[in-house]
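[09:14] KT: can someone run the structure on this one? pasting the chain below
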Amino acid sequence: MAQFRPMLARHDLTEQQWRVIRVLAQYGRLDASEFGERAFILGPSLTRITRTLEERDVISRHKDEADGRRTLVELEDSGWRIIADIYPESTKICAYIEAEFGAERTRTLLTLLDELASLPSEHPGRGEQR
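[09:31] RB: done, structure tokens below
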């Protein structure tokens, strides 16, 4: 993220806000719980981030018409403009990282991170007192 922080700062975005915007750009309208899982952000932080982005008209939240208990989150036009503004520079940064770190090593790293992220949240030691 050190490579991306200056770019995000120029757009007045935090790393987590950028992650939220990218997830919504990639997956479209999402249920709030699924959204949190895909963004890898815990509930309290996600609530704060979505509130901030909603106040900036970057995202919107709506009740699901089919199930009023669910809240759906999606990008607004200004969120799509942020993606369009940042994407070219982000792509250059990714290309730089791949060139410096190596394409094969980058792919391996991303694969390993995906595998790590897919581990079940339940594990044998969860809930034990120390």
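[09:33] KT: thanks! The first strand starts at residue 30 and ends at 31.
[09:34] RB: yep, looked fine to me
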